[in-house]
Specification:
It is a single chain. The protein is of the alpha/beta class and about 230 residues long. It has eight helices and eleven strands. The strands form three sheets. The chain has a six-stranded parallel β-sheet. Strands 7-6-8 form a three-stranded antiparallel β-sheet, covered by helices on one side. The chain has a two-stranded antiparallel sheet with strand order 2-3. Helix 5 runs parallel beside helix 8. The longest helix has 15 residues.
């Protein structure tokens, strides 16, 4: 079975009602990203950071996958689909996708501030004083600015195995995630779906650009790929 590797960014979930990571003014939900998405921000004002993610978590629990998410599930009928997402939401899994790697962590999980391997599922608010089995404060299971991206190596290995690469709803500006495209073999067809594409056909060989939202563009592409599958 041919393998399709899918890289998704914030635009994948935008039509489900989740705001993209940074607005045009560089703020995230009105906050400087370094205040709420960095180890320094957490050390300075942990209550602000915890409440920021509590709000994101509450919002996530109220939204549903969109047509783009469900189309990727359909793609599994004919292909081995591996999704690598920059998103911290669970909408790929909620839609039914079975192979999802989260580069930047997961909003519905928390981990110990001391033992990074102590990770727990978490759907309620997280407060100061909430501790893990090791007795240490819990924090969002999110990769913040300035932190290592532990899932990067597995993501690179998956990308190297792609027969087809699909990139959806990402600015291709956030590294190291944006570098993954360079690990696909030169002969691999690449599809880039975004309403405001930041790369063009001259940037990569075998590139097809679809200036569409995820909810519109992904179903179109999925139908095309399924129709052409042996």
């Amino acid at each position: 079975m041919r393998r399709i590797v899918v890289l998704t960014g914030a635009g994948m979930s935008a039509e489900s009602g989740l705001k993209t990571f940074r607005d045009a003014d560089g703020l995230w939900e009105g906050h400087d990203v370094m205040q709420v998405a960095s180890p320094q921000g957490f050390a300075t004002d942990p209550e602000l950071v915890l409440e920021f993610y509590n709000q994101r978590r509450r919002q996530l629990l109220e939204v549903e996958p969109n047509a783009g998410h469900t189309a990727l599930v359909k793609l599994e009928e004919k292909f081995d689909v591996q999704i690598i997402t920059q998103n911290i939401d669970n909408l790929h899994e909620k839609a039914g996708s079975t192979n999802v790697l989260h580069l930047h962590g997961e909003l519905l999980k928390v981990r110990s501030t001391v033992n990074h391997d102590l990770v727990m599922d978490w759907t309620k608010d997280l407060h100061l004083g909430d501790v893990g089995d090791d007795g240490h404060q819990l924090r969002p299971h999110i990769v913040w600015f300035g932190e290592m991206v532990p899932m990067l190596e597995p993501a690179i290995e998956i990308t190297q195995t792609a027969d087809i690469l699909i990139i959806i709803g990402t600015s291709m500006q956030v590294y190291p995630a944006a570098s993954l495209i360079n690990y696909a073999a030169n002969s691999v067809p690449i599809y880039f779906i975004d309403p405001r594409p930041t790369i063009g056909r001259s940037d990569y060989s075998n590139l097809t650009v679809m200036a569409d939202t995820a909810a519109k563009g992904v179903p179109k592409l999925v139908n095309r790929l399924i129709d052409s599958a042996p």
